[in-house]
Amino acid sequence: MLLDSVTKNQTLSTEFSDIFSQLIFNASEAVTNTVDFINMVLWGDGQVLIFMLLIAGVWFTVKLKFIQLLNFKHMFSLLKGSSKSDAAGISSFQALCTSLSARVGTGNLAGVAVAISLGGAGAIFWMWVIALLGMATGYAESVLGQVYKIKDENGEYRGGPAYYIKQGLNNSWFAILFALCLFFGYGFVFSAVQANTITDALSNSYGIETFHSGLVIIILAGLIVIGGLRAIARFAEWIVPFMGIAYVLVALVITIINIQLLPDVIIDIVKSAFGLQEAGAGAFAAAVKNGIQRGLYSNEAGSGSVPHAAASASPHPNHPVSQGYIQMLGVFIDTMILCTCTAFIILLAGHGNEVGQMEGIRLTQTAMESHLGAYGGDFVAAAISLFAFTSVVANYAYGESNLHVFKLDNKYGRAFYTTGYLAMILWGSMAAVPKVWAMADMALGLMTVVNIIAIVLLTPTIVAVTKDYNEKRKNQAKMDFVEADCNIQGSTEDKIWK
């Protein structure tokens, strides 16, 4: 009788386990199907975001009178004096490094590889196109981040799309929608993507268990983010220039060694961009889609992420436009320099036609090993670990900036957010690559849709503030921004701009 009871309990336990497993499977399938559908609309057959990004880039390029080309030199001139800060904000240079630490990550090494493996060498051309157009878009959203910034309970600057949507457009529900998308993306999913790439690279090079690598990432990230935005900015200020210069120097050496192959590589990029070398229209569409998609993921122009870093700065000179130029420079550095370095490393190794044969960071590692031998894989593993880790840390700052929107800018809200953020890092370190990237694409896409609609509607403010800056610069007047000098939409917070 006792045996029958035990057997019956075991049977019930097995049945319960089977039912629970089936429920988990069904839920997982439902989530996957939802993510796939949204990505299909945004990035796939619908191509909503591709058109939105291209139109927005052209729109702001025209409205701002080709600012990224005609005022190219002025971007660099503003680096002088960019180290100045005050009690309310970080320096312009720290804001640039913070935004670059979020930008420079998997998109530069793994993302470029994904673009080439799925879209061929031509994807790089379209990555350049979206970067050039994105410079104007990045400028526009960063100016708005500065104009509509606020001071939090600690007297420090906070800002971003949720803030300029609420104050500039007087639309609270649209602001909350963006903040939710950002929390999902930068607060949770994107850090999982970065962690996934780090653990995959370390596993591929050294056979390190992904779980163990994930735990190390959590510990290191936790030690930095607990200090808040200023600690993150100080970390970025030291690490980003070092890692960026080192990577560019290695890419330059590889390019010089293979200089005789460079003309053919460039020709291949251009021809492939228009489907002149591969199988017709399908190859052309793949090049456009993957180039723009991965370009956006890398430079983040138009997604609404960078305005958070821009808004946190005390600009020099004290005008929103100066931070617009600084962040426009960030788009240029990220895509036109760093992504191009990765593309040349891969294509000069002869891997440009290996479409679909290798995934993500492993393609970059294989290419680097072709140039530098076994040390090449080690270098990429170290580079991606450092690049991606800085992104993990910066992503936290973007999510933290939006706690104020939900009245969670307190120790309990921060504790809840930090716990979820660290948990997602651990999950991402062990998850399958396609699932992680798919969720990241969805989150980034939804953010971008909301943000682009907002900044287009706020175009009159962007143009007015830019005109004010240009006139003061032309007349050699004091460059301080005064709200009364411009006809801006909505209103700024009291005493932000005196």
Instruction: Let me know the largest β-sheet.
Output: 2 strands, antiparallel
- The helix content, as a percent range, equals over 70%
Global morphology: globular
Number of domains: 1
The poorly predicted ranges are: none
Gyration radius, to the nearest Å? 23 Å
Q: What gap, in angstroms, lies between the N and C termini?
A: 85 Å
CATH secondary-structure class = Mainly Alpha
Number of strands: 2
**Count of DSSP helices?**
20
CATH architecture: Up-down Bundle
| Class per helix and strand makeup | mainly alpha
CATH topology: Amino acid/polyamine transporter I
What does this structure look like?
- With 498 residues, the chain is mainly alpha-helical.
- The protein has one domain: Amino acid/polyamine transporter I (Up-down Bundle), CATH 1.20.1740.
- Helices cover 76% and strands 1% of the residues.
- It has 20 helices and two strands.
- Strands 1-2 form a two-stranded antiparallel ribbon.
- Helix 16 runs antiparallel to helix 17 (374-401).
- The longest helix is centred in the first third of the chain and has 41 residues, at 2-42.
- The radius of gyration is 23 Å and the shape is globular.
- The N and C termini lie far apart (85 Å).
- The model has no long low-confidence stretch (mean pLDDT 81).
